[in-house]
């Protein structure tokens, strides 16, 4: 491991100042992603700013009915919170589907949102990777790309975002609070384009302090994750769904997808195809067709296109039964 300096501030302003003034600084919370990347020599921060003493560990129900989740709330704590389980069940289910209990006890809300990709070529420093070394190429294109993107990819990068929590929060229309501004979660993560090394829209040194969930919407909430094994595996495909139906017709639909793009993926046009209609297999098939329009495999990951269709149809069927 390369040498680095370290500090542990106790105030948000101190942490932001340290990260802004030190070249190549990184924040560290639970460390479940960053430490692995440092050991692999993928991440090489010269300075670590430990945020664990900052006052960002609370889950607060606000007067307007929204829920404010501190950036340092551990994944296990958030998944077990009674209000989250009752009113934002899709989030609890997504969290419990990710990693192991030990990792959930350490992983933080902000860290989960800002995970780097788990692309084989990104974590292998002997391989060409535009995300790790801009301009070096992408060996995943034409290589072994079973876990890679089918939507929103580019000629520079076909990596996927690994977070389950972020997919659920996208379906919940979460807003990310930083020390400088509020960012709708749909605007936090980027598609790769020709700058895949830039994962998100945060500015240098900008610190996530909380995530806010809007007041809950009465709905059936599901998170369905398809993976190679039942635990401790990233999604091949995942679907977060919020469906509200009344008098035999769908009145509200929110759909977000994981394992298929460089960022958590949402398709508003597909959602609108559901609204105002009675649930039916034909309708769900039509919506699934809309979601995979423009999807493109790279060989080893071609299976994801029919898998995404089937997973979405099954999720919609379950959400509207009865």
UniProtKB/TrEMBL annotation:
It comes from the Bacteria. Keywords: FAD, Flavoprotein. The lineage of its organism: Bacteria, Pseudomonadati, Pseudomonadota, Alphaproteobacteria, Acetobacterales. Coiled coil: none annotated. Gene3D superfamilies: 3.30.465.10, CO dehydrogenase flavoprotein, C-terminal domain (3.30.390.50), Uridine Diphospho-n-acetylenolpyruvylglucosamine Reductase, domain 2 (3.30.43.10). InterPro entries: CO_DH_flav_C (IPR005107), CO_DH_flav_C_dom_sf (IPR036683), Diverse_Substr_Oxidored (IPR051312), FAD-bd_PCMH (IPR016166), FAD-bd_PCMH-like_sf (IPR036318), FAD-bd_PCMH_sub1 (IPR016167), FAD-bd_PCMH_sub2 (IPR016169), Mopterin_DH_FAD-bd (IPR002346). The keyword Flavoprotein applies. SUPFAM superfamilies: CO dehydrogenase flavoprotein C-terminal domain-like, FAD-binding/transporter-associated domain-like. This is Xanthine dehydrogenase family protein subunit M. GO terms for molecular function: FAD binding; oxidoreductase activity. It comes from Lichenicoccus roseus. Residues 1-218 form the FAD-binding PCMH-type domain.
């Amino acid at each position: 491991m390369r040498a680095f300096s370290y500090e542990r501030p106790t105030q948000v302003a101190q942490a932001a100042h340290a990260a802004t003034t030190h070249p190549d600084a990184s924040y560290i919370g639970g460390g479940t992603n960053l430490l692995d990347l440092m050991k692999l020599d993928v991440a090489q921060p010269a300075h670590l700013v430990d945020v664990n003493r900052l006052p960002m560990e609370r889950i607060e129900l606000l007067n307007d009915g929204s829920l404010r989740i501190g950036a340092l709330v551990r994944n296990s704590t958030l998944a077990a919170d009674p209000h989250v389980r009752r009113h934002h069940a899709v989030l609890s289910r997504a969290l419990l589907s990710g990693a192991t209990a030990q990792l959930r006890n350490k992983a933080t809300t902000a860290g989960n949102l800002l995970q780097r990709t788990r692309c084989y070529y990104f974590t292998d420093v002997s391989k060409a990777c535009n995300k790790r070394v801009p301009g070096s190429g992408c060996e995943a294109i034409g290589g072994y790309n079973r876990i890679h993107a089918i939507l929103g990819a580019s000629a520079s990068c076909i990596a996927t975002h690994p977070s389950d929590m972020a997919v659920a929060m996208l379906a919940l229309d979460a807003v990310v609070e930083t020390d400088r501004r509020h960012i709708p979660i749909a605007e936090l993560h980027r598609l790769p384009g020709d700058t895949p090394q830039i994962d998100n829209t945060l500015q240098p040194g900008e610190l996530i302090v909380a995530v806010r969930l809007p007041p809950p919407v009465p709905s059936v909430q599901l998170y369905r994750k398809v993976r190679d094994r039942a635990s401790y595996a990233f999604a091949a495909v995942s679907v977060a769904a919020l469906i509200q139906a009344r008098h035999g017709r769908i009145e509200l639909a929110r759909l977000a997808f994981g394992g298929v793009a460089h960022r958590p993926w949402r398709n508003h046009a597909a959602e609108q195809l559901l609204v105002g209609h009675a649930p039916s297999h034909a309708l769900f098939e039509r919506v699934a067709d809309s979601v995979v329009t423009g999807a493109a495999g790279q060989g080893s990951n071609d299976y994801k296109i029919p898998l995404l269709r089937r997973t979405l149809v099954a999720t919609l069927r379950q959400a509207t039964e009865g």
